[in-house]
Amino acid sequence: MADEDVADDDEGEGDGGSGRKKKLILFGGIGIVGLLAIGGGAYFFLMGNSSPPPMVDGEQPVQEEQKPVVFYDLPEMTVNLATDGRSTYLKVRIALELQDRGMVDQISPYLPRILDAFQIYLRELRPADLEGSAGLFRLKEELLRRINLSVYPARVEGVLFKEILVQ
């Protein structure tokens, strides 16, 4: 009887082992199929769109024209930053990106309002607010928001820093 119990245990382990192998093969196959799908999708998105657009009856492909833009330089500004101890100054030169020359005429009367909005905001900044590219990006976005509020209904497309100096 003891020998039969040992034989039955061996057979039970064999069935459990083959079940584990089936699960391993199943999960391995699913993993390989998943990796192939991800690789194929990556190839499609990165390399699949590099072919030129199809041409109809020998026509040339349509080229998108870049619209000309106008840059309007603001006067140089120097402001005292908000600090606890010693004085820290920010010197900045900014250019505004506009759609066309007509926008310059619309914005010029609002120049005192623009400079006032910039001065008020810049004086509240701390030197730590200007550290790194993220700080400058936030500054650029906030200045763009403030200038568009100042010149509404006209619209400024972008704020470009020509010079930034924190001293």
TrEMBL record:
Where is this chain primarily localised? Answer: membrane
List all membrane-crossing ranges: 24-46
The text of the family note is:
Belongs to the FliL family.
Q: Which protein, by its recorded name, is this?
A: Flagellar protein FliL
Q: Which Pfam families match?
A: FliL
Task: Please describe what this protein does.
Answer: Controls the rotational direction of flagella during chemotaxis.
Q: Which UniProt keywords apply?
A: Cell inner membrane, Cell membrane, Cell projection, Chemotaxis, Cilium, Flagellar rotation, Flagellum, Membrane, Transmembrane, Transmembrane helix
InterPro entries named among the record's database cross-references:
FliL
Compartments where located: Cell inner membrane; Cell membrane
Membrane topology reported for the UniProt record:
Single-pass membrane protein
Does Lipoprotein appear among the keywords?
no
